[in-house]
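for the record, two folds in this file. i put them one after another cuz i was lazy. first one right below, seq on top, structure tokens after. the second one comes after a little note so u can tell where it starts
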Amino acid sequence: MELFDVNVSIGYWPFQEFHLKDIKQLSRHLASYGISKGFVSSLESVFLSDPHNRNTILIQKLKGKRNFSPVPILNLRLKNFLEEFSFLVNCGVKAIKLVPSYHFYNILSENTFHILNACKKNQIIPIIQIRCEDERSHHPLMKVPPVNFKDIIKLSRIFHDLKILCLCPYFYEAIEICKKTENVYVDISFIERFNTIKALVEKVSAQKILFGSHTPFFYTKAAIMKIKFAEISQTDREKIMHINAMSLLKIEKC
């Protein structure tokens, strides 16, 4: 199976201990499951008020690695977020990630509008992290609400000509997002049902669904099993595995 994983992270997380400590380990781990390309973000950037240094380190570590691309995280509460965006564009990134719930801003804020306009102008894919962990497993002193999927739907109508990727929606959120938008895509990492992918494809087009494992938060194999044993057509399977990601992100074949 050729797989493009749009939801991978590396680094330190204060509430879990991950065994994948560096890019080399991560690369070997993903390759062992047939994941030939992936988008990687820095976990430290979620909690740092200014993620610049961690984004820069991530870009440097992935330089020259054709199989993985950095997805820097932007904090839109910083006054210089547009300057930081320009810096990242000059570094050649294909996508940027927003974590509104952790950086304390509303996804419908004016700053979000500014950054999405910048993404549209520079042909950068904006990725919205709906959640990092299941809300039920949060540390009792660190309860972080998910991004409201209804706000994402509203945002998509304002930026109807910009493709947006949402990571970690629940099953019902993914259905609502895909049904009520033309330009928003979702990954499968948090989607759980009996015969998960079949249940999802029966509700929405496979064209809107991308493979994402949410490694290292989840076992990578869990996402692999969802797609491997999905009772769907081979055409839809390949769309989810890699074709949709390559089309969305305008990259070469895996």
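(here's the note) second protein begins now
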Amino acid sequence: MSVLRPCATLEDIEPTVLRRIEVPGAMRLDRLHLVLQAAMPWQNYHLWEFQAGDTRWGLPDPDYGDDIRPAAKATLAEAVEAAGGGAIGYLYDFGDSWQHRITVEDRTPPDPRHLYPRLTDVEGRCPPEDVGGIPGYERYIDILADPKNPQHAETLEWHGGPFDPNVPPADELRLDVLKLAKKWKPRAR
């Protein structure tokens, strides 16, 4: 088993929001989705998909008649191969359209001292869920930056307190990813 080091960057957002993780190359895409949900953190209550070239993986809906392949039957290594070694797309929340670019920066043997998946680098704070995509997020940041804005108090209350886009809760995010690693740890026989 090799360990891949993908870097997931949320596109078109300032300041930059990125997460570097270490995961087994054989990790299924449905599990990679859960790792990204924990690392950002998103709340995992919207539709999502991975894209590599013309191939898409997610949760197929037989009533929709879509050509999306089941994410539970594909691995990160297969998606990297389908992308020709280039970037993979990850779209979360088809309404807000949070598009992530995933590039695999390295491939290494596993380190027996670590559990995988593992969050290794956190930069920038992820926009809140249901903020309204990029335009809504920009408006949200403007409102919070201006205490005189008539919507400031209401927006602050909606989020649950202050929000600094430059300061992610890195320790909490690492812990949430570690919880997945412990949950998925292979059992000794």
